[in-house]
Amino acid sequence: MLQIIGAGYGRTGTMSLRAALVRLGCAPCYHFTELLTHPDHLAAWVSAVNGAPGAWRGPLRGYAATTDWPCVAFWRELVDGHPDAKVILTSRDAGVWYDSMTKTIFRVITEGAPGGRERFGRLQNGRGIADLARLVVVDRSFGGHIDDREHVIACYERHNAEVRQVVPAERLLDYQVSQGWQPLCDFLGMPVPAEPFPHLNDRAAFPPDLPDAYSPIPGDGGPRTG
Predict the structure, then answer these.
(1) Residue-wise pLDDT tens for the chain (226 aa)?
(2) Residue 149, Cβ neighbours under 10 Å: how many?
(3) In a domain, 216, yes or no
(4) Residue ranges making up the domain that contains 200
(5) Residues 6+ apart with CB under 8 A from 34
(6) What CATH number is associated with residue 135?
(7) pTM given for the model
(8) Which of 122, 185, 190, 194 qualifies as a FRET site for 46, CA 20 to 30 Å off?
C-alpha cells in the first residue's frame, strides 16, 4: 500500500527524494529507474497511458512510495486511489528546471544525447523503456511537444498549481530538496538522520552510463509481495 506519493516532475530532485525516503524506511520507492530492472512493468504502464482503468496498480504493488515519471503522470489517480497516502510536491525555479530538462531528459528522449541510443540499446527492452518515456513525458505531461519553452514551462507550472489546489493542505508537502531533512521529516513525523541529505543525479553526470549509474539504493530492495 502506498504511503507517499511524489507529485513533482522529473528534474526537481526526484532521485534525491527517493534516496531520502528509502533512508527513512519508506521503501521500496518507485522511480522511473525501476523500469531498468522491471521491464515487465512496461505493458501495464502503456495500458495505463491508453486509458485502462487502474492499470498502474500492478507495477506499484508492494511499493511504499513513488517519485518521478511514470507515476507522476498519474498523480490524480494515485491520490484518489490512496486517500491515506501523503503527497510530496517537489519543485524548483521554472527556468532552472526547464534548462535542466532540455539538457537531460528531453535530450535522451529525442536521442540527441551522445550515446543515448546505444545506452538504451544495451538494456533489456531498452527501446520499450524509451518509448514509454516519450508517452508519459512528452505526450501525457506536455501535450505532445517539448520544443516550445513557454509551453513546457506553462505545463510545469500548471501541474504544480493543480497539485496544490487538489491535494488537501494536511496531506501535502510543498517541498524543494534544497531544504534538506527538516521539513520532510517534520511532515512524515520522523527523526532527522545524522547524515547529510542525499543529492543525486546531478546534471553534470547525465546521461549516465546505464544501467550502472542506477544501481539499487541501499535499503530499497525492490517490491514486496502482498
Answers:
(1) 899 999 999 999 999 999 999 999 999 999 999 998 898 999 999 999 999 999 999 999 999 999 999 999 999 999 999 999 999 999 999 999 999 999 889 988 886 444 455 555 555 567 788 889 999 999 999 999 999 999 999 999 999 999 999 999 999 999 999 999 999 999 999 999 999 999 986 554 444 444 433 344 555 655 533 2
(2) 13
(3) no
(4) 4-209
(5) 41, 59
(6) 3.40.50.300
(7) 0.89
(8) 122
As a whole number of angstroms, the distance between CA 179 and CA 10 comes to 17
CA dihedral sign of residues 2, 9, 159, 21: positive
CB 35 within 8 A of CB 198: no
How many domains does the chain contain in total?
Answer: 1
The single residue listed with the C-alpha cell 498523480 is: 75
Q: Which residue has the cell 511504499?
A: 64
